[in-house]
Amino acid sequence: MIKEVQTVMDVRAQVKLWHDAHQTIALVPTMGALHEGHLSLVRHAKTKADRVIVYIFVNPKQFNDPKDYDHYPRNHLDDLDRLKREGVDLVYAPTLLQMYPDDFATNIHVSGITEHMEGAVRPGHFDGVATVVCKLLLQVMPDIAIFGEKDYQQLCLIRQLVRDLTIPVEIEGAATMRDEDGLALSSRNVFLSAQGLKQAKRLNKVLFDLAAQVAKGDVSTENAQNYGRDQLNAMGFQDIEYIELRSADHLQEVSNDNQNKPMRLLAAVRVEGIRLIDNVAVDKIN
Ligand code: PAF
Q1: Which of 66, 142, 188, 267 makes an SS bond possible with 27, Cβ 3.0 to 4.6 Å?
Q2: CATH number of 187-281
């Protein structure tokens, strides 16, 4: 069996043993229901440190819809099995009470970066993420923590949080894992019908095509969002939450001042009521 702990005391005791032995530790935070995308983060983590800890906790504070929290997929035994096969050293799976005792009263809000896109559509979501990630990093104190670029806005928020609060952990983004048709792997994909899956696979195509056109200058940065929305409509997406072109570092709106710096194209749509997000890099060719 893979070693699993549930308490801060136990995870810290193990981390201390490894640090005392001069071993470095990478942490991979997840909400479980692990798929190949998570496993690619684990593999990345293994190249970065001597020891890998995977954290599994479905964080209620980041679900703005309680039904979404109740229905979030949970496969703990399968997860443990997969992580064992990947050679993970430790699973940290705290209980709800361990993370949020009854008298828990702190909320961490990172302003600016959280106020648009996911933040606008999912009120309170990023406070829940910032609060739990801050708590987790302080509990474990790894040398490095790996987050997927699939949740790009989350990654930018965590970088900001760690910078602002001077938490001594390196934050590393790992590339989004895609299926053979480019669909970004997500725990929510399992809820799609065969038809829905076919539709979902068109999202990355729109993003990659538009990113290439903006990079070449065939679509201007000013027109990119409207053009992207039209393309999504033309490809059969009826429920588009946003498609936005932003600066890659702080996710600011693209203007004359920053349009020659790396950009990111991000979108969220619903297919069969399931939220799908994706994003791609836009590196302008001057
Ligand atoms: O990306 C996730 O799975 C979650 O948002 C995280 C970072 C584990 C915090 O709950």
Answers
A1: 142
A2: 3.30.1300.10
